[in-house]
Amino acid sequence: MNVAALATPSAHGWVRQIAGPVHRVLKVLFSVLLTFLGLTCVTFVIGRVIPIDPVLAIVGDKAPPDVYARVRAEIGLDLPLPVQYWRYLMKVLHGDFGNSVITSQPVLADLLHVFPATLELSLLALIIGVIFGVPIGVIAATHRGRWQDQVIRFGSLLGYSMPVFWLGLVGLLAFYAKLGWVEGPGRLDVGFDDIVPTVTGLIVVDSLIAGEHDVFVNALSHLVLPASILGYLSLAYVARMTRSFMLSQLRQEYVLAALAKGLSPFRVVWVHALGNAWVQLITVIALTFGSLLEGAVLTETVFAWPGLGLYMKNSLFNADLNAVLGGTMLVGVVYIGLNMLSDLLYPLVDPRARESS
């Protein structure tokens, strides 16, 4: 008996099992690399065409010409554009975004300091949007054309139409100034500053870790209103997309076949149809989270929330180009990471993706 001949099929099967995931990961990494290079090109071009002179932001308007020329040479603006881009790319790969004009600190240090506040706000908003948006979208799809569907579509349209800064001002007036149900602008009351040691950067989590329940309640009271407003915007989008995906799934033949076999409508809708719709919803949720991070500028401005959005707004108004480009790069990297995560999650949700890759 030829032992090698018997071992060959199983060896080939093992190689195929390993090659599939490896090939999938390599494709994702290659796509991420190209996207990252495109992102650096875009931010580099923005830094060159934006009507802000980084040299003047450093030396001031009244600096003598020799000082202006010396600083311009020090930061490399006198070099050819390809050389400038190469130097910029190398600095970005090393996490060097320059120093902030406002804080005189490295931009990366500033971003690491303010980003957890935006992450905390956006995470809670995303949780609100997904927990309520997906079931609402399913209900709208299963009651298509009825009053439930009309109410949900109208509510989603309002979420798209209302400016977030207007909702923030109305929310502060109603729930903070009039009713007193929540705390006002800011992330914490002044009396609770510097009580909780930073572990994750998320105050509601760090306060629980430290056992400071008063800080947790105060932080949550500050967080709930801006997160609910952002969550309403994400809920409107998630509900609308869920409705669209579910309508497509409910038209499929497997739904009729499952009902004909005697499966309950609840199981067919909420297990089978929604399970297949999750493949598309993963991308929607990932992009929603990215848009929450990007779109928190107005919300953080209204609520004086010390996060990435407020940092970038202040940097833009003070002609702090390094900080603006660093924040833009951070948001872009987050988008890239979310897309990569959604691509890697597809095979876990849909076995057909594993077979086709």
TrEMBL record:
Alphabetized CDD domains for the sequence: TM_PBP2
GO function terms (MF aspect): dipeptide transmembrane transporter activity
Cited Pfam families: BPD_transp_1, BPD_transp_1_N
Broad class of where this protein is predominantly found: membrane
Family matches, as PROSITE patterns: ABC_TM1
Keywords: Cell membrane, Membrane, Transmembrane, Transmembrane helix, Transport
Keyword Cell membrane in record: yes
Compartments reported by the entry: Cell membrane
Gene3D superfamilies linked: MetI-like (1.10.3720.10)
Entry annotated with the keyword Zinc: no
Membrane topology: Multi-pass membrane protein
Domain ABC transmembrane type-1: 115-346
Record InterPro entries: BPD_transp_1_N, MetI-like, MetI-like_sf
TM regions (residue ranges): 25-46, 121-142, 154-177, 223-242, 277-298, 319-338
Listed GO CC annotations: plasma membrane
Family: Belongs to the binding-protein-dependent transport system permease family.
Protein name: ABC transporter permease
